[in-house]
Amino acid sequence: MPVITPKIRLRRQLKGRSGFAPRAAAGDRLSELDGLASNPGNLRGRCYVPEGLERGAPLVVVLHGCTQDAAVYDHGSGWSTLAERHGFALLFPEQQRANNPMLCFNWFSGSDAQRGLGEAASIRAMIEAMKTRHGVDPERIFVTGLSAGGAMAAAMLATYPEVFAAGAIIAGVAFGCAEGVGAAFDCMSGRAKGDADDLARLVRRASPHKGPWPRVQVWQGSADQTVVASNADAIVLQWTGIHGLSPKPDRVDQVEGHKRRAWIGADGRPIIEEYMISGMAHGVPLDGGGEDAIGAAGAHMLDVGLSSTAQIAAFFGIVPEEEEQRAKPKAGAKPKASAKPARRLEPEPVAKREQPASGPQAVIEKALKAAGLMR
């Protein structure tokens, strides 16, 4: 059986249906971003631009997780609903199966998570295309993602820190914690080690940047068995180290029954913010209640009574004051009576492959099954 070694990039077209193909998106709202000047990572570009979007609007780059595509992630997280409501643009880089059979961004590959190379460079080129074509504000560009997309969001913040004002990492890992597939699973399971200085050094070495660093928000489920909760601690250590902050937070409180830690800047805004969602497995936290609910619960989209999408937009500062106040925790507030406990939602069954996997694809499937990423 062939093995996958570090730095080997899989670019093989797979024929037939796949057992891990994502479910067809309900109401795909995204458009194609074609004609890129450079696309070394061979990613597909998708976007959402509300009708009549004014020049100088913010841009949010959204990175899906493994087994997902951009439309599925948008439908579940509700980003395009919020963008239409409040007037900002969205860019959804999308992985292709020729790059990774599980549709994971290759955050663990040195040829894809380095400045100027592979998938990171493709995402950077897509951002430039959105700036040119839609006139988005270069001072208000943000990035977020789930799981492999969260790890790739961390890579983008590290390799292109001058591009982003802030980022939000959901069930992701610290930048530079792994190079290669085997090390990636060690990282996800919490076996990778590093103190604040070591972790911060990885970010500083990733670019020649000398200016202000992006603000960072971290989301993690306490019951996540795919990317264990200690990874959130590592991300926080990495970015408090970058910002020269104490490991001890300035504020600890509860938001809808879930723990929030915050490191506050001189302007009163959080520089680093972490949400630990009690009892939640691997996925995106959602709030399915109320008239203003956004997103839809499903596989890796978990209704816990708290919308990460709304909270992230508030952290980015791209929602109006009234929505921002709804998203912010109130001092001493008790959890809503209607707040729902986290539910472990399993992916819906999909059609089986016409032929069994073999070669590198089989190795990847075996490893991902062992990690709980597929069944």
Describe this structure in words.
The protein has a single domain, classed as Alpha/Beta hydrolase fold, catalytic domain (Rossmann fold, 3-Layer(aba) Sandwich), CATH 3.40.50.1820. Helix content is 28%, strand content 17%. It has helices spanning 70-77, 79-86, 118-134, 148-159, 181-188, 196-204, 230-243, 308-316, 321-327, 359-370; strands at 31-32, 44-48, 59-63, 89-94, 141-146, 166-170, 215-221, 251-255, 258-264, 270-277, 284-286, 301-303. The strands form two sheets. A ten-stranded mixed sheet has the order 1-2-4-3-5-6-7-10-9-8, sandwiched between helices. Strands 11-12 form a two-stranded parallel ribbon. The chain is globular and about 45 Å long.
Radius of gyration: 19 Å
- Put simply, the count of helices is 10
| Large-scale geometry | globular
**Under the CATH scheme, which class?**
Alpha Beta
Percentage of residues assigned to helices: 25-40%
Mean pLDDT across all amino acids: 83
Q: CATH fold name, please?
A: Rossmann fold
Distance between the termini: 21 Å
Structural class: alpha/beta
CATH superfamily descriptor: Alpha/Beta hydrolase fold, catalytic domain
In N-to-C order, the SSE pattern is EEEHHEHEHEHHEHEEEEEHHH
Major sheet characteristics: 10 strands, mixed
Q: What is the CATH architecture assignment?
A: 3-Layer(aba) Sandwich
Strand numbers in spatial order across the main sheet: 1-2-4-3-5-6-7-10-9-8
How much of the residues is beta strand, in percent?
A: 15-25%
Number of domains: 1
pLDDT below 50 for ≥5 consecutive residues: which ranges? 1-25, 330-365, 367-375
Could you tell me the number of beta strands? 12
